[in-house]
Amino acid sequence: MREPIRLSFFHDVLCAFCQVAAERVRRLEEEFGDLLVVELRPFALRPEEAAPSPRDLRRQVRLVKRASREPEGATLRPRAVAGDGSPVVERAALLAAEAARCRGARHSARCLIG
Questions:
Q1: Domain residue limits, the chain
Q2: Whole-structure pTM value
Q3: Which of 7, 25, 5, 28 is nearest to 17 (CA)?
């Protein structure tokens, strides 16, 4: 039996392109089965505690729109960034992802993919 490939997937739980990448990694897991072991490693791209400025929010909306053009990003919507109550500070989302990771792969994947 072949030794599995181990992949550490560092991701920001609020990053649209990380969500696209997460879906691609999930598909790789389906394709390769036991030959691929993925360890989800959440981290913050924007670790500061302050809420993003209006300029930062506009930039995030543009990035979400771009990521939503990817086949795996079709469900992404900019309204999540524009102030509908979604997390705008990384720390809370990062703590939730870490807590899910500590509970196991199934919880961690659900936190990342949805």
A1: 5-113
A2: 0.69
A3: 25
